[in-house]
């Protein structure tokens, strides 16, 4: 098939590269000229395992190319995927500005019948709106079919997830359109869920909202465990062995972040409000997560009262391991609070420092290793469970810091290994040591 993918962010780029890998001819369109120039050279502007190899291989086989020109990108295409960002408005609803701009460009440049497939996460009813918007301004004599194909990849393992996900959801109100999409997706060898448009849109929001709820649930259990002498590691393990519950997403920590869970939970609340339904569980999840992001600094302040002038090492800036993404990362609000309290912040992240520099206030010291950040610090705070941070031996904190005090927001170490050292250790939902 000849496919265009609009938007080359985490979702669009991975989608484009993977659709090329399974044998389609794909052109990716983006308005960001710098990004397109980089991509044309086979260089990935984002950090994602295996992606650059896919880009290079498929560019060299002439199955994948990139352009900023809609006319060129859409020529001869049977299917057009929309994968631009849908951030949140101040009121929590989804901001569809980029999707609307894409629709206007499609109206101007489509010259043959196409199926438009929405990958972006959009509120229920948006696909119908997209179709109406494109048709309203359509210049050529073409037929538009519309489908929803929400994305479930996880940043950090996006390529792997595309080939090994749990399911592919395709939603359309026409069986013929569903048949075409089933054929396109056959190469991924995953179970396919066929639904109508609105159910597909809803599956995405409901799935993310459920996962956010599961995280907040275990975080609340962790906070209570701390107060009553239970250990959340054991609680999670004991709960997760129940197959009705499942062990995934039961790691207590300092809250979820990233470009999806925060905005998607707020967006579904907003969809519910428009439908005059009070989404009580999710309103509490959003509040609970907000509180959870603050607890690591609360713990620091309880322990030290003042951190003015103290060197604080902050390890991990990305919202989760294996990504360079800092969108809605807990590290941002944590570092802002530490700076407000007068701390001298020295930080290290294996991939996200460049992105963090763009959003963090002046005055943060970026270092080139865990050692450099931790050396002579009075306090070390772990915010992201990167492999290198988890594997950095706890004894090293003892040798690098004079009076080592570690606040672990991701429970990277077992209490048994910490107990063998002289490190004072505070984590989430477990007794403190020292
Ligand atoms: P992103 O911000 O990384 O990328 C969006 C891209 O779209 C950018 O490269 C931007 O330049 C481009 N763009 C903006 N306007 C454009 C236009 N008019 N024409 C062409 N290109 C344009 O976004 P993302 O993280 O890839 O997310 C895309 C969508 O997928 C969102 O709706 C998001 O909620 C959803 N989603 C994201 C993830 C994830 O893990 N990131 C997972 C599942 C679903």
Could you list some keywords that capture this structure?
434 residues; alpha/beta; Rossmann fold; six-stranded parallel sheet; 18 helices; globular; binds nicotinamide-adenine-dinucleotide; EC 1.1.1.22; NAD(P)-bd_dom_sf
**Major sheet characteristics:** 6 strands, parallel
For the record, the CATH architecture of the largest domain stands as 3-Layer(aba) Sandwich
Q: What's the rounded overall pLDDT mean?
A: 97
Radius of gyration: 23 Å
Which ligands, by name, code or SMILES, are bound?
A: nicotinamide-adenine-dinucleotide
Principal-axis shape equals: globular
Strand coverage percent: 5-15%
Percentage of helical residues? 40-55%
The CATH first-level class of the largest domain comes to Alpha Beta
- Give the helix/strand class: alpha/beta
Pathway: Nucleotide-sugar biosynthesis; UDP-alpha-D-glucuronate biosynthesis; UDP-alpha-D-glucuronate from UDP-alpha-D-glucose: step 1/1
Protein name: UDP-glucose 6-dehydrogenase
EC number: 1.1.1.22
InterPro entries: 6-PGluconate_DH-like_C_sf, NAD(P)-bd_dom_sf, UDP-Glc/GDP-Man, UDP-Glc/GDP-Man_DH_C, UDP-Glc/GDP-Man_DH_C_sf, UDP-Glc/GDP-Man_DH_dimer, UDP-Glc/GDP-Man_DH_N, UDPglc_DH_bac
List the helices and strands and how they pair.
Layout: E1 2-6, H1 10-21, E2 25-29, H2 33-40, H3 51-60, E3 64-67, H4 70-74, E4 79-82, H5 97-109, E5 114-118, H6 126-137, E6 144-148, H7 158-164, E7 168-171, H8 175-185, E8 192-195, H9 197-228, H10 232-240, H11 261-274, H12 280-304, E9 311-315, H13 330-340, E10 344-348, H14 353-359, E11 365-366, H15 370-374, E12 379-382, H16 387-390, H17 394-400, E13 405-408, H18 415-419, E14 424-426
Parallel strand pairs: 1-2, 1-4, 2-3, 4-5, 5-6, 7-8, 9-10, 9-12, 10-11, 12-13, 13-14
The chain binds nicotinamide-adenine-dinucleotide.
Nicotinamide-adenine-dinucleotide binds next to helix 1 and helix 5.
